[in-house]
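fyi for ur records
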Amino acid sequence: MLLMVRCLLPPVVCAAIALAGPAYPDRPGKKVVERVCGGCHGLRLMENMRKTPAAWKTSIDDMVTRGMKASDEEIDTVNAYFAKYLTRLNINQAGPADIADVLDLTAQEAEAIVAYRKANGKIKNFDELEAIPGVDAKKLNEQRNRIAFSTVAF
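which gave:
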């Protein structure tokens, strides 16, 4: 049965989300996530969630207290996968290593973002971010739903 969900965002944003590709990249740890998380509630529940690594850890710890069946190694794998591939990053607070890691940018691109921020203050929006010299706007656009410009509650 196909579940239909009405997107309450502007149509352009809804289309971008729908075309963004698989929510769970085929990267190391995916099979463990599918087995550990998908068994109880399915993966669709979390596919558009973007949390901080700390918020993901809190959610996973909560699932363990509710009876999630996983070894310590599997829990570490799930935490690492979510932190790497389903994390939302505050571009105005993150250091260069986190920017590079979470957004799949080079160290030089991440440093350019931090240097721009130091020289110009907080980055206000995506247009400003993608205009930073030395940063590949296409790469940023691919990670757009993972970037926050202010503190966000999760």
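The longest helix spans residues 72-85. thats all i got for now
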